[in-house]
């Protein structure tokens, strides 16, 4: 049976490995693989195949609506009329809202675009007998594993 678990690179991982060795798991049956974390920055603009769930046009649409209403209202008194001034107001509101949202995403939320939360830095693979699997799983959980999975050998 194989058990897979993920850990942060911390002393809990080393303690889990030493505890497994004390309970009869051979050193040759324990395999640790460190992961490389993302080095490049996350992209602000979405593509067709990848989206981060944030919208850059939400504030722009709200401001476009508000500015178009104001522009159309004022347009009754101006020479071009309410339709043109409503469209001009909508365009100006959208540009202002898009600029605000882009500024907040690029400058203020730069750290948010990095990978959030705890990152799995090491994958630990343990070969053991099926009778030892519960013991190994409990040891991994007690040493702060982020996740544990069992695979039976056939």
Q: Would you write up a description of this structure?
A:
This protein is an alpha+beta fold and 154 residues long. The protein has two domains: 2-35 and 120-151, ACT domain (Alpha-Beta Plaits, 2-Layer Sandwich); 58-108. The chain is 44% helix and 14% strand. It has helices at 11-22, 58-75, 82-108, 133-142, and strands at residues 2-7, 30-34, 122-127, 147-151. It has a four-stranded antiparallel beta sheet with strand order 2-3-1-4, covered by helices on one side. Helix 1 packs antiparallel against helix 4 (133-142). The longest helix has 27 residues, at 82-108. The radius of gyration is 28 Å and the shape is rod-shaped. The mean pLDDT is 85.
Which tags fit this structure?
4 strands, 2 domains, four-stranded antiparallel beta sheet, Alpha-Beta Plaits, alpha+beta, 154 residues, rod-shaped
Fold blueprint:
Blueprint: E1 2-7, H1 11-22, E2 30-34, H2 58-75, H3 82-108, E3 122-127, H4 133-142, E4 147-151
Antiparallel strand pairs: 1-3, 1-4, 2-3
Q: TL;DR of this structure?
A:
This is DUF1269 domain-containing protein. The protein folds into two domains: 2-35 and 120-151, ACT domain (Alpha-Beta Plaits, 2-Layer Sandwich), CATH 3.30.70.260; 58-108.
